[in-house]
Amino acid sequence: MSGGRGTGPAALRDKAAALDATDPLRHCRDLYVPADGLVAYLDGNSLGRPLRATAQRITNLVAHDWGTRLIRSWDEQWMDLPLRLGDRIGEVCLGAAAGQTVVGDSTTVMLYKLLRAAVAAAGPERPEIVVDTENFPTDRYVAQGIADETGARLVWVEPDPAKGVTPDLVEAALTERTGVVLLSHVAYKSAWIADLPEITRRLHDAGALVLWDLCHSVGVVPSDLDEHDVDLAVGCTYKFLGGGPGAPAFGYVAARHHERLRQPIQGWMGHAEPFVMGPDYRPGAGMRGFISGTPPVLGMVGIEDTVDLIESVGLDAVRDKAARLGRFVIESVDELLAGHGVRVTSPLVDEQRGGHVTLAHPRFREVYRELWAQDVVPDFREPDGIRLGLSPLSTSYAEVAEALVRIEALLSAG
Ligand SMILES: *Cc1c(COP(=O)(O)O)cnc(C)c1O
């Protein structure tokens, strides 16, 4: 089924070896904690692999910062960690000047805080929130909850699931009553890259605010938030930023909105003077006011290692390898899997596709289970999608080739 010489498994493995040999990021793979017995990890866009430096940093944290310095570490380094780390993510990954990004809370909670703040700022004259049916569940659920809470009305955009939101689709949903538009930069299923600059421009022309979810773009696709006048953004740090399971989110609020936006979870850590412990809440200046409670330090420290690594190789090089890995998948599916009826349900054009490729086949649920049993680890997406996460810093072409060869073997076995 897989054709003759030149298109079979051996040829695919050879091609992968050649691509790995000339990959400018190949040295990065040795920086990760080795995973014994793992054949291929293609889920780094759900949980990124840990760097050795992160393992060391967490060990040091327990032994020194926590173990020895104890409570003194709050003064010495942790109080400012949410802002300092936010600035690093902003600088390296978001194109955001300092003072606009903060780390803390889960993505879900940060999303709630920023969307709720934006809805309040938009005011009663603009009670419509534009959301799309292909966005990640949390984003849709949070928006539904805020609509229930505030009386705002949700206006649904329905994109093609194999693609994503386009400027025209979004524009068609805008009215003079649109307050906030919530969209993902890279779609979690299809990997479609929304045209962030153009969509932001058009909704600003209509007088609305935008909240971009960068969960699947941060650390792999540049967003250049300042340059494109983005109002608000949130994103994950445990996907492409390698922060580890449960690592907190980041939130970005453009400086021009700091005075106007008030987030709803008023906690002591976001207070202008947390240790005065006074009777009333008074938000801290700038992004300090977007902090609620004690930051999850253990989950935060590892993020910095991946951000440092991205800075050292350049985000554009990471982006470039993501595109190449995706192209390799698409070409290989053509050669090896199309005959089995496997379809690519991600954009075929590199410029429109983020850091993963989703394939579809009616038998993929069982194929996926079997792959996991073989230590080949992609993601499954209902109803019939295998999502191949392509983390450019840690993923080799050989891993990708091996996964595709195994998929082919499993489909051939019938
Ligand atoms: C991964 C992801 C989330 C996860 O939210 P958590 O609160 O961290 O569980 C939210 N939104 C999108 C678009 C995601 O891809």
From TrEMBL:
Keywords: Aminotransferase, Hydrolase, Pyridine nucleotide biosynthesis, Pyridoxal phosphate, Transferase
A Gene Ontology molecular function term of the record: kynureninase activity
Spans through the membrane: none
GO cellular component: cytoplasm
Domain of life: Bacteria
Listed pathway(s): Amino-acid degradation; L-kynurenine degradation; L-alanine and anthranilate from L-kynurenine: step 1/1; Cofactor biosynthesis; NAD(+) biosynthesis; quinolinate from L-kynurenine: step 2/3
InterPro entries hit by this protein: DegT/StrS_aminotransferase, Kynureninase, PyrdxlP-dep_Trfase, PyrdxlP-dep_Trfase_major, PyrdxlP-dep_Trfase_small
Protein EC: 3.7.1.3
Top enzyme category: hydrolase
Reactions catalysed: L-kynurenine + H2O = anthranilate + L-alanine + H(+); 3-hydroxy-L-kynurenine + H2O = 3-hydroxyanthranilate + L-alanine + H(+)
Coiled coil regions in record: none
BP GO terms, sorted: anthranilate metabolic process; L-kynurenine catabolic process; L-tryptophan catabolic process to kynurenine; NAD+ biosynthetic process
Cofactor needs: pyridoxal 5'-phosphate
Matching SUPFAM superfamilies: PLP-dependent transferases (SSF53383)
Function noted in UniProt: Catalyzes the cleavage of L-kynurenine (L-Kyn) and L-3-hydroxykynurenine (L-3OHKyn) into anthranilic acid (AA) and 3-hydroxyanthranilic acid (3-OHAA), respectively.
Family that this chain belongs to: Belongs to the kynureninase family. Belongs to the DegT/DnrJ/EryC1 family.
Subunit structure: Homodimer.
Stated name of the protein: Kynureninase
Organism taxonomic ancestry: Bacteria, Bacillati, Actinomycetota, Actinomycetes, Micrococcales
